[in-house]
Amino acid sequence: MTDAQDTAADGSLRITGGTPPDDAGSSVTGAPSPLLEPREGIPPVITDEAALAEVTAAFAAGSGPVAVDAERASGYRYGQRAYLVQLRREGAGSALIDPVACPDLSGLGEALSGVEWVLHAATQDLPCLREIGMVPTRLFDTELAGRLAGFPRVGLGAMVEGVLGYVLEKGHSAVDWSTRPLPEPWLRYAALDVELLVDLRDALEKELDRQGKLDWAHQEFDAIAAAPPAEPRKDPWRRTSGMHKVRRRRQLAVVRELWETRDRIAQRRDVSPGKVLSDAAVVEAALALPANVHALAALNGFGHRTGRRQLEQWQAAVDRAKALPESALPQPGQQVTGPPPPRAWADKDPVAAARLSAARAAVSALAERLTMPQENVISPDTVRRICWEPPQTVDAGSVATALAGYGARPWQVELVTPVLVDALTAQGA
């Protein structure tokens, strides 16, 4: 045992040297200790229904919050499905579950209904957890808690080190978690990710309470838990890296056709689209509009490693785009609702641009006083929308109504309304 921990009567680990300091974001005293092994060792990976039923019963009988994490295979596999789920709860210990072998975890999710789930960067893991039937009704997000508390670094490793005084080994965060069997070092890393998550939650709760921000955090966590699944993105091909170089409609059509062809292939092969064809190659082909396979093969991204059949399928996509009538070509700008990009405001509406500048400065000053990032004080998009189309009568009631209408939580409405009213009225709104 290190001087940052001791053992309770029941044998569980109790953190004593890692409670948050008086100044949020500063480190615990003394050198951090490496956390090398889960306290009960690496649990076996659950791969069958009988073992899953045992784990479900154990976690249902546990007490207190449950730490939850998931590992995906981003950059290796198509989509964002979970390839490992890790949990830890007092009285149940830790569990590692293979959602490929056990794809339906709705029974476990139901057993934990009403229990507070502790996640780090919850919005990253909730979509893949939802796919396998795990949906929290209550949660505590340790990354978001760190932001609200004013910590300058909110990654899990930085938070555990800064708040609890332990160093987590992070060498396996970007590995291919679809690998089977999973190597023991990866499983150790995965188990350690939930080892101290509840301890971190408890320490952050105390710090938020000390700063008078705990109710704000609960409102944020409730909003995340209540949020519906995200709608599929419209025209996802427009997010191709390097799209700013593509300006002509015919070239945009090539990007779209290549992107959609690549996506179908990637989905069929269950690999990351970038492993099928890079974004850079898609943009290169769109700009060049190659006339044939020979011309395509000369472009970056379509070199000697690309087989003849593959070149023909990409060229066929280019040819389909080149054959489209003008009426079927995509428009240069994606149809968006709301205000234009801020960089265009000075030309389109100088008065609105002045309002936005004043509002941003006011929100920035408020965020500095609160010691938290501006985007957590209020969504920048919400500020833009109110500045572009302010209420007809700018007063506390109208601005508060507008903020709430854009999804601001009550604590944000209370704090941001006065500064926005002052900023807007100062610009004659």
TrEMBL record:
Domain HRDC: 248-328
Cross-referenced CDD domains: RNaseD_exo
GO molecular function (one): 3'-5' exonuclease activity
Range of residues in the leader sequence: none
Stretches the record annotates as Disordered: 1-41
One GO term (biological process): nucleobase-containing compound metabolic process
Domain of life: Bacteria
Family annotation (PANTHER family): RIBONUCLEASE D
Designated name of the protein: Ribonuclease D
Native source organism of the sequence: Streptomyces dangxiongensis
